[in-house]
## 1
Amino acid sequence: MSEISQNCNYFGTNGVRGRLDFLTPALACRLADAFARYIAGNGAGKRIVLGRDHRTTSELISMAVGSGLLANGMQVVDCGLSPSPLIEYVAGKHTFSGGMIVTASHNPPEWNAIKFLEGALPVSKERGIHIEKLMKTQAGYANAGSGDYQTYNALPEYLHDAMNALDIGAIKKRKFKVVLDCGNGTGNLIAPLLLRELGAEVVAINSHIDGHFPGRMSEPTQQNIESCIRVAKAVGADIGIALDGDCDRLALVD
């Protein structure tokens, strides 16, 4: 614990982020350990949902996070590679005690991050301070070995519930033509399926998942989505949709 100073401040607006030389597997495990004790200390239960994006370091960090949770006897449900909103949705629908998402969202590929959920809501920087304080105390492995780990593919459930929230008939009648730019991110797991189920003709670009983001930078700014704008004009699309890396923000092109 010596490397944590009394004035450390790991938590930003939404979790902890940095390059791998900062957000190491060791730090990820300790953050998960402290988070588990924080959740248990609040009497919220032991069920934690876990998910990650496709960045080159995400699987490594996610495994470390899972270890830190299990070492404290948490019941971990790992959704694996998933859009970030899916994890938040599952956490709320199934009343999880909390959640952890390994993703740097719209940041460059060399970055990664861990987002924390208390229930289904993000842990604020102010609440993150309490987790940091627990990191300075001895790791609590009294419940080591009593945790439980299982995997769950929540994508079919997520797609089903999204469809149920829409007027499918009305949308299908419009026969939309959509240019979809998933930015090589996890949006590729859900957005093309959803749009095609809604009867849209989908013109997909950057439509394979790649943690190096070869197609464009992850943040869907106007400058970064010029190809989406150009293709939408060229094919006469009704709309263009450009997602960021973990599918929690989008830009629309008319």
## 2
Amino acid sequence: KLIKEKFPRHGIVGEEFEDDNQDAEYVWVIDPIDGTKSFIAGFPVWGTLIALTRHGAPAFGMMHQPFIRERFTGDGGGAQYRGPSGSRALQVRRCAGLKDATLFTTSPLLMSDADRAAFGRVEKNVRLSRYGGDCYAYCMLAAGHLDLVIETELKPHDIAALVPIITGAGGVVTTWDGKPAQHGGRIVAAGDPRVHEAAMKMLAV
């Protein structure tokens, strides 16, 4: 309602409602609760995702976690954190290779058998892997706390808001075959291009 009042020519697409003017120059991509299972279980790693795209490419993204009052934003050129500990710029960390990397995924059980096997090849080569996190894992990557996130079966509203946050913090996010990530599918995000490249090679085997 607020978007339509302020920007009547903009389109809106999302998970919980019908698409509206999705061919507009500017389109808002909204996921009211990303990480529904975490939300149900009481783990505060879910969030509200809001992206603004222009001509189909993400121009701005926000992940808001209202319970712990944290907000991550990015426009591809920079990224910011705001929360109880104050405000700061987001910056990914350097990581020379998979052997030094911390890897996250929501759950390998969400993957097909073939994708799970490909993920397993990467997992065997990293320093540490953890499950869970949903959208929050991508923001932790942007904040420099982990190095790699690998997912499958994502919808546009699951990833569009996170793309400018990750790239704004200096990271890389694509599909497994190197295409733009904002349309969803099989996603690999990394803080360091070297980790991204190494993961991509293993996922393609």
